[in-house]
């Protein structure tokens, strides 16, 4: 339940007895996942909870209280006996046990009136906390005297009661921080508990190293005094209507947990109209309603910009650090706007290419204009349409929500909803309006209908179109309003069909590399089913799996991480010694899919990889050019089919800034043949001939870049080319000596050197398989067959028989595995060459002194 913002007094009772000065080692988590040990006292450790709690309440309360105050001032008259501002600010105080540094005497209202209650000092009176409050808390140190927590509770009760007086609706809270190592006077503690119940005081006792089964934690070698005090605290809390005892470590962990503040939205009055109220009032309905926010965009706290403040000559005070060195003082930057007329803007375009004027001379060409001399206007082409009054006349609109019509809820397009959702309630003070609105809501709810409505926030404002959805709660009926787009707001994008292709004859194509097969569809369907999150959560009491993702526990990382960093910086004095800890696990809960689902989908993922032939794309190495430029790196997550060919109507051009180059045609074996007539497998969007030309696009660009380098060799500066290849111009992948552009030439050159025969045979086989298995590779079939013949000859002569036989078996398996792809046509062309391209048998190998595990019969049957 949301608390009444601005109506809470929270008092912190902090034990600063000598035992709180005991040092401890605290494990601090670092952002990189490692931990470091920091030594601090129990008092410093427990005060972190106080500071974080104060910041959490102050950051939320102040702005909400300010909003409520501004609204309240318009409704109430200011009176001397009722200061409205004070009523709307949440207050809190801090009290300590024992004297402060043994120099402060006992000071509290009970001691001043009746005496007793020694060593209880009101350190910070009840007031709105500021940055000075946190700084003062950091100055607390363990005392030499011992105080009694029960005395502090009694003083706190009396202080709150005196301050609040007759304000019965205020919430009273107390937080006691202690280590429980000192004796406690427990006489008449029942009367104290009754008093707290009478005033409805909520008590939280945060104990240093207290036993906690929930955490879990149990301190070893605990003193008898502390054990007795812990038992007493639990007994005392059991007598309270609202109280809790917890461990300090658990409290520090829980306070960093993301928490959503539940607030009440202000009700804004308006009118709901159905029908023409002005012309046909007897046929119209007008209902007084209130609107409040159902959802609102939450944003992280914005950062301010600061700069080192310049020291003025007349300043005598200089800030210094601990080493007496001058300390930089930062001041927040303020934005300032100046208007001026730039006379250089009227010059011709030729003048714009001239070198820029010096800053002093450029400033002289500007004339500063006062804001009062400006006239608002709209840019219209190359000119402007002035609007002297600041804006054109608005439409004459009337405040309210007008229902324009109804439609079935099943036709509502949820993806078109815009902005935030609002509640539309009936006027809470008018039962007649509540019955009227409830009747409309119930009727629409039974019919399964929604309403199209126009909302005008106030007279003369631009209208908004939206829908009203009937909502029936347990005790109240209302509407939910969400804004919908106008026709101007809708963006429509059309895409080509993913499962239908049309050839040039206008006939549908049923088999194509870009049309998914039944096997692929089944694999993807199984993968989607395996990644279902509806039953991936924890088990309930009946053993059924719950939904894994719950919006109630999904927090905005930007908001809560920023708040954590802000609070940590205010609490910790040395960020190097105590850096910002990692985010709370609850904040990262939905960053990764559940392990249970990943394990369940493991086999489905493998099936998808096999069905779609998913392969890892190796990272391309950046090659330094002669002119000093570096080729751009491709994205690591680049799709396999992300290269889009240029449009036929818009061919790629070479910038005029580059030197003229000659386009060299590829070899005959690589030229793209014209599209064959009557080939039904050609799609309308991209024919074989066109795609084959696109396959040579990298080659042409590489030749252009190569010629550009040669033509400009010796020049000191070269322009950056339009397209810098992200790999070798020969098409060699990293670690390979055979490229995909001229594989046969690369192979012959490496064989002639005689050093890397085995590597050359292996790489050429890889290149052949890569090109042959690509879609639309018909233009390079003859070239690949020529490469295979040369590869077989070299393998036979250089005793690489096993490598050739392994390559040919793998090629056949990949080609015939999917009969619907174009690779099966390539294997059919291979078989047409007959025995001369088949496996190398024993007799053939023996003629050249080699050896083979393939018989002549097996080699002949392999090509069948």
UniProtKB/TrEMBL annotation:
* EC number in record: 3.6.4.12
- What keywords tag this UniProt record? ATP-binding, Chromosome, DNA damage, DNA recombination, DNA repair, DNA-binding, Helicase, Hydrolase, Nucleotide-binding, Nucleus, Telomere
Give the location in the cell: Chromosome, Telomere; Nucleus
UniProt-annotated stretches for the region Disordered: 346-366, 647-692, 707-729
Low complexity bias spans:
652-670
- What's in the GO CC field? chromosome, telomeric region; Ku70:Ku80 complex
A Pfam family it matches: Ku
Tell me a GO biological process for this protein: telomere maintenance
Q: InterPro entries from the entry?
A: DNA_bd_Ku70/Ku80, Ku80, Ku_C_sf, Ku_PK_bind, SPOC-like_C_dom_sf, vWFA_dom_sf
- Annotated membrane-spanning segments are none
In this chain the Ku domain maps to 366-501
- GO MF terms on file? ATP binding; damaged DNA binding; DNA helicase activity; double-stranded DNA binding; hydrolase activity; telomeric DNA binding
Bias (Acidic residues) ranges: 347-361
Q: Which family does it belong to?
A: Belongs to the ku80 family.
Under what name is this protein listed? Answer: ATP-dependent DNA helicase II subunit 2
- Name the species this protein comes from: Hermanssonia centrifuga
